[in-house]
Amino acid sequence: RDALLRDxxxxxxxxxxxxxxxxxxxxxxxxxxxxQQRARSxxxxxxxVCLKRRYYYHRPSGTGRCPLDDVLGLxxxxxxxxxxLMCRAASLSPSYEQGSADLTVYAGLSIEPxxxxxxxxxxxxxxxxxxxxxxxxxxxxxxxxxxxxxYVSVDGTGTPMRREELLGRPGKQEDGSARTRExxxxxxxxxxxxxxxxxxxxxxxxxxxxxTFQGCREAGVLLHQEALRRGLGLAQQVVYLGxxxxxxxxxxxxxxxxxxxILDFYHASEHVADMAKAIHDKDPDxxxxxxxxxxxxxxxxxxxxxxxEARTLLDEHSDWPETKRAAIQSExxxxxxxxxxxxxxxxxxxxxxxxxxxxxxxxxxxVGRRLKQSGMFWSTTGAENILSLRCLVLxxxxxxxxxxxxxxxxxxxxxxxxxxxxxxxxxx
Length: 428
Hints:
With about 425 residues, the protein is α+β, with helices and mostly antiparallel strands. The protein has helices at about 1-15, 65-70, 80-90, 95-105, 115-130, 215-230, 245-255, 265-280, 285-300, 305-315, 320-335, 345-350, 355-370, 380-395, 400-415, 420-425, and strands at about 30-45, 45-60, 65, 145-160, 180-195, 200, 210, 235-240, 260-265.
């Protein structure tokens, strides 16, 4: 392998320095000096190569440019292929240190962990911009074929942040301060079939994610854009799964009107358990039995029956302490506020998922395994960059977004090269 890499290194170096294939003879702009054969070491899959190219230095601003770097698609001192591997390693590994070690073992690349972080910071914002420009993906059933059921789900999970990032933010600590900041994660997946028992089956590899540390509205916009890319316009039915957070359902109202709204069954069951514990506060066994019976009935039908029983108990036991009655009434109010989202019997009869396990698992795998490791404390920008990139790498859009980003960069550089002679003459 070493011998082949040495041969490959010589070939790549010869190719990169071939000015017939890759010309870099742009004319100087006003107040620029051109320096020939400026050397730079570039890391490629075949090792380091020495690249010699023209360097244009703008004296008044103290900035320089190398057109050949843009032509070759270099990311700093790295070839496009190496930069792509760095992004994948940085986002898929539990830490930058582990990503650096993986690159050494799997690709023979010796890259410092901090360089992975710098690459993520340089690439991730452009990848997010490129993602927004992508056309919808073909569905699992084929291009332009309607999707039977498109599921949309969203949840949040706390991520440890640096102390300066949390100043003034309210939290759940005893003193009211915060130790984490919520990462909002959205997921989209497709269902085209059910099993022999009529239970819904998620299409293999049909799940994609978007994540952000921005506000609720920004998270809703990102999720809606992802749903459009995944076939929202072709969906026969859209199902929105979520927990009881108010912002979750407000985003649904604003961005997915007409969707079937389903409150996660296990979340609803937890509230049923709390109500049963409040009723039998001195008998855990009776509370557990009541919870099992009520949850089973709710799964087969809806909470209507258990709510009627709970109201009857309140009427019959006017002697209960006010705190106990308030706790029971609070759970009744909660389930009543989600009455149209808890018709689980109807949803199951139609073959819909009634649990948000996909997005809850996503919070653990997408966010937790990368951003919540022991000893990690993030800046908001750093966490946003790695989360956005990780969602891309774990989903179906990474390759397309990578190519779209390169295209956008080429267009931006083309615009930068356009200048009117009279304006530049005046500036000179």
